[in-house]
Amino acid sequence: MKRQYYLGISIFITIVILILDQITKFIIASSMKVGDSFEVIPNFLNITSHRNNGAAWGILSGKMSFFYIITIIILIVLIVFYIKEAKHNLLMQVAISLLFAGALGNFIDRVLHGEVVDFVDTYIFGYNFPIFNVADASLTIGVLLIIVALLTDMKKEV
Q1: pLDDT averaged over every residue in the chain
Q2: 2 domain residue, yes or no
Q3: Active-site positions, per UniProt (predicted)?
């Protein structure tokens, strides 16, 4: 019989991402001033202490009430989607766990500090990509995995 839910894996992923996210943000916030930066890989990766009180690229900067409401709605939708739609699909459950952990990680920052700590500063093909954190990376990977899971399901149905 095929397992419906891989709840242990989902909880493990969520907890690991949350811990990693919060520890890295704490280290950056406690050891670097905003704007401090050091090069890790020349012309590719810096660690730069940055704060963001908006969404990606500073969109909707300072609209904390909006972010609180939207994040709570997103977290509820993810839980419902996990329960109703992700049965038998480990990849979809992992993707939702990554999305949940990422949204919760940044939500914790917004509630406790009124802003999100960002620090991963990359240059990709000469483009200075917006500074991000572990939660942001988790969200991005989660979205990519959902796309893969949906495309895989579509192939099975054809």
Answers
A1: 92
A2: no
A3: 118, 136
